[in-house]
Design brief:
alpha/beta, globular, seven-stranded parallel sheet
Amino acid sequence: MNYNAYFSADSRTVEACIIGTGGFGRSFLSQGLRVPQMSVRIGVDVDAATAAAAMRDVGISADDIRICDDADSARAAFEAGNFVAVGDFALVADLPFDVAVEATGHPVHGARHAELAIAAGKHVAMVSKEVDSVIGPGLAAMAADRGVIVTPVDGDQPSLLIGLITWAQVLGFEIVAAGKSSEYDFVHDPETGTILCNGSSYDVPGFAPFARMGDRSAAEIVAARAEAASALPQRAVPDLCEMTVVANACGMSPDRPDLHCPIVRIDEVPTILSGTEDGGILSRTGVLEVFHCLRAPGEISFAGGVFVVIRCDHADTWDMLRDKGHVVSRNGKTAMVFIPRHLLGLEAATSILEVGLLGVSSGAPAPGHHIDLVAHADRDLPAGHRLAMGGHHHSIEGVSARMMPAGALDGDSPAPFYLAANCRLARDVAAGELIRMRHLEIPQDSVLARLRESQDARFFKARKSA
């Protein structure tokens, strides 16, 4: 679309509240200072001082910031035109803003914030994919009941990929695969025999012979690279989590529960991520996938971008497009169309303006519940063990994730990964087993568990009684 349309869609300014002022939140606060029709004057974090520090960090004068400990002082500061910093979203939920941007990344707190915002009649921009993977479809439906919208945000891969998939569908393309590159490239230096990834250098002495695909089969090169780079982590929970959000928005699913996650050069994507009948690695088509972008030092990055692999229906057309630089598979049967960007909070304003001015979501109008991201024990886990979530990627030590068909939860159900996060185990779980709901001690007051129960009743009650 022509984004200048925002400026004529409505003369008013969209007011947003950012909940979670870490990396994404800081970027978004800075957007509030320069996007013409958007204002971000409310910041929420674990304490008000943290939110105020983030505001100062992006250039907001300390003289314009008010640290507030109660709802009355927050309202007074907001009405006076100041920036408001608080440690609890409940203190500001009733202020006259349009969109609550949930960016804490915390499953339980994020669920509480979303519920409070919807109850207060606010739109919700859901940055926290951890929440979305457990109760996203239910939150969207709850919001629709109240006449508001829950949307993903541009700048992050789920929203960007949903947009690219729906673009391809509108144009009538057959989607063979869709997905994203992993957050960090695999930068192979043949001179040193290393791969640099996420700031760490790994010795991969046997990788050089497989740096280029040549005339090898897709299955052969993928297996060889995975083995030669076995020192590097090749699965990340956030990647599967983001694909779960896309799956529920678009009704797509993975080829395998843990994804293939191949190590692939940009020009190889449509060759490798195609069906086995076309020389690729996929057992079926129309699936979601993630790849690790393999490149040499100085070569262009995929930048955590998103892609669709589509069928080439007319050879002459795709010969012409190949000549113009488009990435076509070596047999000419598939091609990749991609967006090489991933700007996080720097791009989120388009989603805020869409929902605030135009009343539409950057994602699906009504997400379904097709896939659950579930927890898998990678080592023996004893009863009483706490599944502590931590780190930049909000992972759980000794636990990986799988994308499984969704269903209403009961004791035998595989536990949603971020519902299990920070819970204690009620019984032992052996390595190689899925962690199931009966394995967990879930706090009685868990907002996340309550909202998941409500979501299950909404999406699966009719199916169970049929």
